[in-house]
Write a structure and sequence with these properties.
single chain, 193 residues, mainly alpha, 8 helices, globular, binds zinc ion
């Protein structure tokens, strides 16, 4: 999540410079909201689940990239004043969100839904082989993992953690990368706005 906020800020600033658009709070808020969009839409109705070891269950619905990107692009082109440039920013930030959800915390997303219902995750420990909780969510053990819903339920039963927020964001080096991106975003915001 800190990564998403940072990326939303950084790319909205880059977008303003690149397309010669005024850098406004509206634009920055748009970038951040787009970056958090799938988590807000899927997570808010399932807040209790988000703070449990079953947090992965929030990644359905808005976490189907094909639906989300097509529907969102149409809405952005109709509602917002930046035309195709705004659609470009929306697609770029959304793609980064979905790729980010396939690396690190959680069990990936259904990248190609509705054509495939499998979950995809990159650079994960080989969770099928570990029958004890792993000490990290990022590893070069397996470049790409592809799981069915039943696989994800089984994996979550062994590796899911109720304390995933404090464990991942404050005790894992990947979490520190998230905070670094967040702080770069905040710094760029104060330098540029
Ligand atoms: Zn997400």
């Amino acid at each position: 999540m800190p990564f998403d906020i940072g990326i939303g800020i950084i790319l909205s600033i880059a977008f303003a410079h690149f397309f010669g658009i005024d850098l406004s709070w509206v634009l920055v808020m748009f970038g951040v909201l787009v970056s958090l969009g799938p988590d807000i839409i899927d997570g808010l109705p399932r807040l209790k689940t988000m703070f449990s070891e079953n947090a992965h269950k929030h990644r359905d619905g808005a976490h189907y990239p094909l639906y989300y990107i097509i529907a969102g692009s149409i809405i952005v082109s109709l509602v917002l004043p930046w035309g195709l440039a705004g659609v470009f920013l929306f697609v770029l930030i959304s793609v980064i969100h979905f790729l980010h959800d396939c690396i690190g915390v959680g069990w990936g997303i259904r990248m190609f839904y509705p054509f495939s219902k499998k979950y995809f995750k990159f650079f994960s420990p080989d969770l099928d082989l570990h029958n004890k909780r792993v000490s990290t969510y990022i590893s070069t053990e397996k470049i790409i993992s592809i799981w069915t819903k039943a696989d994800v339920q089984k994996i979550n039963h062994i590796h899911g953690r109720k304390d995933w927020i404090t464990w991942y964001y404050f005790k894992q080096s990947a979490g520190y990368v998230e905070w670094t991106v967040f702080l770069i975003g905040i710094w760029l915001l104060f330098v540029n706005i």
